[in-house]
Structures are given as structure tokens and as C-alpha cells.
Amino acid sequence: MSESLPFWTALVRIEGLGIRGCHKLIEHFGSAQAAYMASLTELESCGVPARVAQAIFGQACLKEGEKEVQAATEAGCRIIAFDDEEYPALLKQIPDAPLVLYVRGDVTVLSQFAVAIVGTRRPSAYGSSVAHRLAHDLAQRQLTVVSGLARGVDSAAHRGALEAKGKTVAVLGSGMNVIYPRENKRLADEIAKSGAVISEFPLDTGPTPENFPIRNRIISGLSLGVVVVEAAEYSGSLITARLALEQNREVFAVPGNITSAQSFGPNHLIKQGAKLVDQWMDVIEEFPAEVRMQLLPPAEASEGKPIGSETVTLFEASLTPEHKAVFEALRPDQALFVDDIIQASQVSQPRVLAALLELEMNGLIRQLPGKNFIRKL
Amino acid sequence: MSESLPFWTALVRIEGLGIRGCHKLIEHFGSAQAAYMASLTELESCGVPARVAQAIFGQACLKEGEKEVQAATEAGCRIIAFDDEEYPALLKQIPDAPLVLYVRGDVTVLSQFAVAIVGTRRPSAYGSSVAHRLAHDLAQRQLTVVSGLARGVDSAAHRGALEAKGKTVAVLGSGMNVIYPRENKRLADEIAKSGAVISEFPLDTGPTPENFPIRNRIISGLSLGVVVVEAAEYSGSLITARLALEQNREVFAVPGNITSAQSFGPNHLIKQGAKLVDQWMDVIEEFPAEVRMQLLPPAEASEGKPIGSETVTLFEASLTPEHKAVFEALRPDQALFVDDIIQASQVSQPRVLAALLELEMNGLIRQLPGKNFIRKL
């Protein structure tokens, strides 16, 4: 444990400072320790309330900070401070990034490419199974699955990732000594074995309701994007989605029957522009090329052979000979006029037109202006 | 019946001419009768095959055309020709508009604002009930519901509209003397009582598979937009959606569980940009103001009180007093800074922030840059 840690754990406990106040000080002084060493005048010049400046100048909370660091070690946690090299870079970008992270498990997992899967604590059977499946499929492709260890969708997502022998991260709304809900204690242990269980709250913080929306910014902050699986009208998951947008992260949603209350949230998000997800590819497709390159085996991710290629092959296999002939007449690098396709495929005009429609519907080809067609990459 | 009708019914029967060829002639001569009166040279100059020009010059199919007009009268149908005043204006816009429409029922219904509801012949219980409900709700708002009289989603849509005492139009893929599927004969009779059953095919044309994709362009052509309720991967409904796009009509889709094969189509369309629909308002919202004005009672459609108003009132009623205070602090005509909202609402900062989030999630307010908020119209 670094010697500066007690200062960090102390600073976040100063009453009336808040996370924004903390960041003002860190921006000015560079570290918690430096803030504790500063003069009263200098502290006050940072724009924190006089009462708070006086508290820091009076070394407030330092004892508790030291005790907390000690207790963390005893509880088998590491504490990562904001200036730590291991502090996850993506999380650091958000304006109200936590100053300390308590981590049980593998700290390095927090810096790997991750996607959050969140949703209601009371999912339908459909929601649970979709969360499990999607987490499984994404974890299998080396994406870390971040969620909140809650009942329902969160638990299903963590379990799906574990089952795929992938990495998963649980972000708590309580301190590390207070796993909530209790029934998930064993799940938390499982997660910490290969991934990480983390919290920004002091070790013994209870799971009070106001902690969860605060916690949600870390779930989205650690992730390239957030997938909402099921969420009712008034739902923390919708807040997580909103935070993700504010953090410039992707927002994804799994649609569901409009007659299901739990699908209100995702369907609503899709109306507002979230990307509809019905399989793992839909998520990875949205990520920048350099991310995809690292996530996918080289053959799949290499230039000119994008994400979709795997499906193309599947589709190709399922095509009728006629559709195949039309598809094969098309080229990925040059648009062909419909008459040339008819000639090249040796298929009759109406059948070529029907085949082109279906191929386009299946996302295999694209129509360009003037009845020109090209294979999709 | 107009004297020119036999020429129209004759022209569409000329072998090798096709609908595009018909339109070439109509563009040149103005009417079918004029084409039949033209010289061979003039006919050939229109770019139709010599064989076809000779046939028309030889008055081919005129006898059949006359018989067909007679038979239509006996069958209780009217025939509307392309140059008829009653020919629906929206349908006339499409490049391959039919030259004749056989109509049983009320011809004027074809010129009213309409939306198509289409989908699989083998819907889930969910699909049937959603199609029925949506058709009911839209028909209740004076929108005519167009569909294809097929089993499944089509039938549910027609029935929903009828139950709302609204108008509905069935576009057949067969001739008017061949109602298909037979079990829908009574439904067709019901539809014709207040709406219309129509076809472009000669009276005794059988329901051969190739007719249905051709028929689909009329379903979308009569409509401001097409709603796809359930559709499997290879589905005529997806073709209708595609035709709607080509005709510059709106495409809507009702999402469904990604584990349901029947929801593949709509979910896929949404991915490609179709608008997600979970209630009738989502459809009407997309239409131009002048359409909405005519569909909705004046109070709902008037300037400054748009479509959403009804829901706003509903939502307002369900708000907590705190959320209501925050909502009421906001104005529809001017953005307020968050601090001013806190002051105006007399609610504490964290609760105001939470309320703003929820109000925004519910689509009641909008956040503008710099933490400014405004009521949504």
C-alpha cells in the first residue's frame, strides 16, 4: 500500500466537500497528500467552502483514513487512488470519477475493454436469459462484462460472463464489507476470483438507496457502452443509460414485447436513439476499429473483413442456389447495374429482382442509386 | 361505368406490355383509349416492343376488356381507372401505380389518410393482439388501416379497425371473384360495408404466389406509412417495408422479444432505421402537421399543443408532488438553468436533479447544453 493512500481515503470523507470539490483540489494540488500539506489560504483559493478548507487544514479524517487503509488490507482489498497508474483510464475520463476504488480481485481487469449489462431487479424469464446469453457471448469475445451485482439482470449478466470463463466486474452500491443482496455473496466471491468486485464507498457503507444512482456512473464509466436488457418505466438502468450518454459512451438496448412492462425501458431508449441489440455482434460492431481488432481473432477483425463476415458465411450457406448465383455475381469493391447482374447470374429478371430484395433485406448487399448493387462488407 | 373503361381493362391484359410499358403509353397518349386509337408508328415510337404495338393496333383484348367491365358490374365492383378523379392521389405517385383498381365498397375511403399494418401469416398471440390493438387505436383516430386480408396479422389489423368502427381497406393478391384465404370471405364482406376491398387483378385471377409481392406495392402506395408487426426473416412484409421506403413512405415496426422468430423482421427493420412503435401515437407523430391536424380533434392537434399533450396530462397526473413542482417550474418556451429550477421549485438540489432525470426519461422535458432544461412540446 502506498503511503499516500490514507490521504485519499481521508479526503473523500471530508464533510461538505463532495466529489466535485475533491476534483477541484486534485486539479490544483495534484494529490490528496498535497492538499493536506497546503496552507489555509491556498485551500480557500480553490473555491471550496471555508469550513471545508479549515477541516482539511486541521488534518480532519486522517486518522479514519489510516484506519480505513488498514482495514482494507485486512479485508483483502486493494485501494486504487485517482493518481495510481492502475486507475482505469476510461473511468478517469468522466468528470466525477471516484478518487478511490476499493478492489477485490484482479485490478488489471478494470483497464480492459468492457461493456456494461444492466437491467431490472425483477426481470422476466426472457430478460434473465437474454442477459445471461449476451454476457456469455460478449465475455467469450474478451469483453469484460460490468454490472451492479443486483438481483435479476445484473446477476444473470455476471453469471453469463463467468460461465463463458470470461471476466466480469461488479460495482457495488455499498462498502466492500457489505455485500448486497446477501444472497449474492458467493457470486461476488466467484467474480473476484477472475475479475473484480469494486466500490468507491468506505468499507462499511450500507446499501442505502441514494448510493445506487451514484454508483451507476462507475458502471458506465468503466465501459465502452451500456446494454439495457429489461427496465421498467422508473428505473435505475435508464439513469445508467443517461449517464452513459453524458459520458459519451454507447447506449444499447435489447427490445422486447411492447406488452411487457419490463421492456418499456429498452424500447423507450431505442426510440430515443439507442442501438437495438439482438446479438453480441450488434454491440461490438459499434466500437472503434482498434477495439474490434483486439477483441476478435485476427481473421475476423482484419481490414476489409469486418465483424459481419462470420454471418455472411452463415447466410451464404443458407442461400438457395439462385440467390447464391446472384450474390456471387456481385462484388464487394464495385457496384453492378441490375442488367449486368442478370447477365452474370444467368437467372431470369424477376427472380434476380426478388433475390436482390432478399439479399438486401438480409444485409448482405446494398442498393446504390440507379439500380446498382454492391456486396456489403 | 365510363365508356373508356373497356380500353383500360384491355390494355393491362396485353401480353408483354407490363405495368411500366402501360405507363409509357399513358404518358404519351394520356389514356388507354387514345393508345388504342393511335397509329402503329406512333405506338412503336413509345418504346414498346413491335409485337406489343401491333397487338394494340389490332385492338387486342378489347373484347375481353368489355366483358370484364360487364362482369365487374355483375360482381358488384366498380373499376377505377388511372385517369379517374377518384383514383387515390397517394397511390398515383408511385412509379408503377396500377392502371385499374377493382373496388368493392366505398371508393372515397381510398383517398383518406391511411396507414398499412402488415405482418406474418403465422403470428404469435402477441403479434395478433398487437396488430388488432394498434389497428383499433389508429382507426379510432380516423386513420384508414390498409392490409392484405391474409391470415394472421393482416386479418387481426382489419378486425381491429372494424371493431373501432373505423375504416379499413383490403388489397387482394387475387381477383375480386377469388377471395383468399376462403375463410376470410365474411371478413371481406364486413370490410366492404364501410371500407373497401380492392384489387388490380382481373376478376378471376387466382392467388398465385407471384401476385403477392406485386400487390404489396399497392398496400404501401395507398398509405402514409407501413407498420410491420411480426415478420420472420424471409417475409413479404419486409418487402412491403422496402417498397414503402422506395415510395418515400414511413416505415414503422413493433419490436418484440429477440428470442421470437416472428420478431426478427421488425427488430431488423428498427436496426436499419425504422421507427419503433409501441403505441398509436408513435405512428401519428411522424406524419406532417397538416395530416395530424385532420386526424386529431382540434384541441389535440392545434398549434403549440402537439400530439404528446394527451400523455403529458396523463404523466402529470401520475407525478409525485415533488416531480410536479419541478415540472411546473419549467417552461415550454424558455430554458431554465438548473439553479433557477431549484429555487423556483423549492425542492432540494439532489431531489431536483433526480426529478429532472426522471422527467427527461419520461420524455416530458429536454436537457439543453449547460444544464438548462425546457418542457417538451
Set out the fold topology:
2 copies of one chain form a homodimer.
Chain A: H1 5-11, H2 18-29, H3 32-37, H4 40-44, H5 50-57, H6 62-74, E1 78-81, H7 89-92, E2 100-105, E3 114-118, H8 125-140, E4 144-147, H9 153-163, E5 168-171, H10 185-194, E6 196-199, H11 211-221, E7 225-228, H12 236-246, E8 250-253, H13 264-271, E9 275-276, H14 280-284, H15 289-295, H16 298-301, H17 309-318, H18 321-329, E10 336-337, H19 338-345, H20 349-361, E11 365-368, E12 372-375
Parallel strand pairs in A: 3-4, 3-7, 4-5, 5-6, 7-8, 8-9
Antiparallel strand pairs in A: 1-2, 2-6, 10-12, 11-12
Helix pairs in contact in A: 1-6, 8-9, 9-10, 11-12, 18-19, 18-20
Q: What strand line-up does the widest sheet of chain A have?
A: 1-2-6-5-4-3-7-8-9
Number of strands of chain A: 12
Which stretches of chain A of 5+ consecutive residues score pLDDT under 50? 301-315
Largest interface: A-B, 37 and 37 residues
What is the quaternary state of this protein?
homodimer
> Radius of gyration of chain A in whole Å, from Cα?
25 Å
Described by strand count, sense and barrel closure, the largest sheet of chain A is: 9 strands, mixed
Helix content of chain A: 40-55%
Mean pLDDT of chain A: 89
Beta strand % of chain A? 5-15%
- Secondary-structure-based class of chain A equals alpha/beta
